[in-house]
Amino acid sequence: MKKTNTQKKEQLKKTTVAFAGGGTGGHIYPGLAIADELKELCKKNSIDLNLIWLGSSRGMDRNIVETSVGIDSTCSVNKFYGIPSGKLRRYFTLKNFFDVFKIAAGCIASFFILLKIKPAVVFSKGGFVSVPPCFAAKLLRIPVITHECDFTPGLATKINSHFASKILLSYKETQEYFSAEMASKSLVTGNPVRPVFYSTDSKIGKDFVNFGYSKKSKPVLFAMGGSLGAKQINDLVYENIEWLCENFYVVHQTGKQKEKFEVPESVSDSYRQFDFIYEQMPHVMDYADVILSRAGANSLWECAVLKKPVILIPLCGCGTRGDQIDNAEYFEKKGAATVLKGEYASSNALKNALTALLDSKKRKCFSDACKELVPQKRSAFLIADFILNNYINK
Fold first, then answer.
1. Which residue, of 53, 72, 230, 345, has the fewest CB within 10 Å?
2. What is the CATH topology of the domain spanning 8-192+378-392?
3. Domain spans, the chain
4. pLDDT at residue number 103
5. pLDDT of res. 5
6. Contact between residue 296 and residue 302 where contact means Cβ atoms under 8 Å apart
């Protein structure tokens, strides 16, 4: 007697995996890339996978997770749980006092969510939102994996590492920032990047920016400062717009600005300005010959996957812990980037760096260096495979 589809479905091994993280898109998108890969692997292994995400009850977290589309054109995550969250600050402010209560509330909420869901493992992608779920998972004896995308570990990762059974790192050298005990449970996987960056089409990027030429007579420069823009990068582009357009076709993601830059008529054929590029972003990056960017971990690894020469202007000053400087200097040390930081990020320095990259042979050297930094297999796949074999199929 043949088994019905219902009976076959009941035979599927069922499991739940919880993801935790948020506060910024940089702590969410890499986790979603892993979720996509894990869904595909579970499907191939006849596992009925339930994915949940614990993120901030305020801000952009819910919208990013619930509108994300995975490989199979459905939402990457089955359910989002919003929890109270307080930011972990290294400096004195009265906000720290009030946020202690938010963190405590987040721990309580996470405890009861995880107690009800009973996931096989909690995967933390970092950010202050991830600490309460990791703490609650430790109390419930649920295994915890935490991943650090930056060259130097952030405070959330340092805390979560005490709850974790495994610490995943983007760089081998990051092990030096942990104690011997913590380093012994680390694994170098690289930084997960969305699957679309492994199947880009430069023609889509070309058609989107629409310079209207039949054959490129000069390289394409893509200046990007993230979804919110970067005033320092924007100002450098505006100050040098005529020189840039004389030597490059320039694609500029500005972020939303109060005042629009008036494009000089003399450069209009070689300059394209966008507030924000989302769906076409991977293809525009692939289309570019050189990228000018901040040094956030995700942007860096996306450039590396695409083997793009980059000029990095890392975020500096009191508003950052210096992680972008560390990321940028590592890429520069490996020959994959030129770094302009602080007072050295001047117009002359930018022109000198870009002049060097007008040489296609020099650009190839940068591209080859990028290739050496990226694992042969996709980082998101490596992590998903690790989760499958060590926490689901055990």
1. 72
2. Rossmann fold (3.40.50)
3. 8-192+378-392, 196-373
4. 87
5. 52
6. no
347 pLDDT more than 70: yes
How far apart CA 293 and CA 312 sit, in angstroms, is 5
**276-290: pLDDT as tens digits:** 898 899 999 999 999
What CATH code would you report for 196-373? 3.40.50.2000
Give the angle 242-248-251 at the CA atoms, nearest 5°.
90
1 pLDDT more than 50: no
Strands 79-83 and 47-56: parallel
Q: Are 363 and 19 in contact (CB under 8 A)?
A: no
Q: Residues 242-271, buried b or exposed e (16+ Cβ, 10 A)?
A: eebbebbbbbbbbbeeeeeeeeeeeeeebb
CB atoms under 10 Å from CB of 284, counted, come to 24
Equal fold, 8-192+378-392 vs 196-373: yes
H/E stretch holding 311 reads strand 310-312
Instruction: Report the candidate in 300, 247, 252, 299 with the shortest Cα–Cα distance to residue 273.
Output: 252
Residue 229 has pLDDT above 60, yes or no: no
